[in-house]
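Hi C.,

You asked whether I'd gotten around to modeling the 289-residue construct. I have! Everything is below, sequence then structure, no commentary in between.
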Amino acid sequence: MPISGRDPRGMREAWACPGGSRPVGGPRTAARRRAAGTGLAGRSLLYGLLAGLLAPCAAAAQDDDDALAEQGQRLYEQQCALCHGSAGEGRPPAVPALRDNERLGLAARTVRFIRQGAASMPPFPALTAAEVAALASHVRTAWTNDFGSVTTGEVADVLDGLADGSETASVWDGVFTEAQAARGRDVYTGACGLCHGRRLNGAPDDPDMRSTPPLARARFLREWEGRSLAVLLAFTRLTMPEDNPGSLTDAEYVDVIAYMLSVGRMPAGGGEIPTDSGRLAEIVIGRER
């Protein structure tokens, strides 16, 4: 007997499939399938939209990572490779290797060493938090190191706990005295002049000797631009004189540096170049005033 005036057989026939087959389930099941299909299509559309929105973010993040790596490598080559080597091999025992150095595993310690220096390593107070992050990330991930990168925020947290009120000066600001440069000339003549030449241009007095790097004027400034006198002192003490590195006192080394600056026509001032590495790190070499 029909229910509510409807013919169940007629309803079944109405939902029959072409060719005589019938779908599994009734009209409600079919409706659910249509809804499910619409839902899947909607989710696919949503995922596509999200992927389109997130792709530029992922690309931007990759670009940021690449820029950080490039900046870190550039800073390392400029500030650190002179002593630690391009491959992080160092100059043991005077300068430790950075490659496979487990001490780099502590990020905060690495940041403090870069900012404040350690032992014969000069400090780098002129670097910004972002530059310290790039440099620390480089030495912690370059070569065979796998200690992970460091963010600018992490560096800022470490630097906030360090005393840092220094201001940088230029070698053009009168950082040596005429008397100091005169003392430096005497030391230079005895310990350096034979190889680097009387004009400090790298042309030795003996024509049979090989040429050496210039120590004054345009070529010297071009090679050392952006580095501090602390880096110059550390490198000079480590490598010079070539036949007996480190044989001069720190006072003699900085006197020679004063003489180098005077030959480069930088003005003398009212105070001498100090031997303290922290204060030397605040004096930056530049080609122009």
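If it helps when you're writing up: The domain at 68-160 is CATH 1.10.760.10 (Cytochrome Bc1 Complex; Chain D, domain 2).

Thanks,
B.
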